[in-house]
Amino acid sequence: MKKLAIVTFITLVLSTIVAGLTAAGPQSELTISAAVSLKNAFQELARLFEARNKDVKILLNFGASGDLVTQIEGGAPIDVFASAALKDMDELDKAGLIQSGTKTSFATNSIVLIVPSSSRTSFSSFQDLKKSDVKKIAMGNPTTTPVGRYADEVLRFYKLSDEIKDKLVFVENVRQALDYVARGEVDAGIVYSTDAVLKQHEAKVVMTAPEASHKPAVYPLAVVKGTKNEKTSKAFISFVVSDQGRAVLEKYGFKPPR
């Protein structure tokens, strides 16, 4: 009888613990598609948001902004979209896929020329990309990546497009360009300044592209139309633009929008 009472007591305790764990578990999932250049910052923002909202689990989907737009247009169940350019967000907005009144610019970035730290070629500006010993230059694909479009604008600004077109290696996203340079697989690359610092021991910045050489690299985010988590989606956007959110973005090198 005593043994039965002990077993009953243990069962009740375990049931209580399981019930508590179930209650404490995430009750809703928020899926966020974001430009890959935001990866490190958004991973930290997601952790902080989850810590403040115990009933929310954030699922992060990173990629080139153009590819993410295609996914959303194809019906992917995304709650919040964060792009590396206004162009991609505007495209979704015109298609009626962004919830009205939620589009918010939250950060800006810079475009830089980087080379492998082991490079023996003397670099001081974008004009040095014309040198004969520069064989391969990595940059994002202008048709799918904002960083590629910005890079293309910079090359046109310096009137380099035709002269170095055979040297260009188009990649799927900015992190791939960064990795190619860091591993010494190309002689130079054009990336965001926030990405360059991630590999500062393997890749060095030669020059920051002047603001006049390309459209402003503005990052917007918005709630995707049709989300089942409208309230939580808006709360996440509010968190990103809050003082705490901006502090995280600045930690990773992003600057506030003007």
Characterise the protein shown here.
The longest helix is centred in the N-terminal third of the chain and has 23 residues, at 2-24. This protein has 10 helices and 10 strands. Residues 1-24 have low confidence and may be disordered. Helix 2 packs antiparallel against helix 10 and helix 3 (65-73) runs parallel beside helix 4. The strands form 2 sheets. Strands 2-1-3-10-4 form a 5-stranded mixed beta sheet. The protein has a 5-stranded mixed beta sheet with strand order 7-6-8-5-9. 40% of the residues are buried. The protein has 258 residues and is α/β, with parallel strands linked by helices.
Features:
258 residues; alpha/beta; five-stranded mixed beta sheet; 10 strands; 40% helix; elongated
Gyration radius over CA: 23 Å
- Summarize the amount of helix as a percent range: 40-55%
Number of strands: 10
Low-confidence stretches: 1-24
Shape: elongated
Summarize the main sheet.
Answer: 5 strands, mixed
What amount of the residues lies in strands? 15-25%
The SSE string, one letter per element, is HEHEHEHEEEHHEHEHEEHH
Task: Give the number of helices.
Answer: 10
Distance between the termini: 75 Å
> What class would the helix/strand composition place it in?
alpha/beta
Strand order of the largest sheet: 2-1-3-10-4
What's the rounded overall pLDDT mean? 91
Compact description:
This protein is of the alpha/beta class. It contains 10 helices and 10 strands. The model is unreliable at 1-24 (pLDDT under 50).
Describe the secondary-structure layout.
Layout: H1 2-24, E1 28-35, H2 39-52, E2 56-63, H3 65-73, E3 80-82, H4 86-94, E4 104-109, E5 111-116, E6 137-140, H5 146-157, H6 161-164, E7 168-171, H7 174-182, E8 188-192, H8 193-196, E9 203-208, E10 217-223, H9 230-240, H10 243-251
Parallel strand pairs: 1-2, 1-3, 6-7, 6-8
Antiparallel strand pairs: 3-10, 4-10, 5-8, 5-9
Helix pairs in contact: 2-10, 3-4
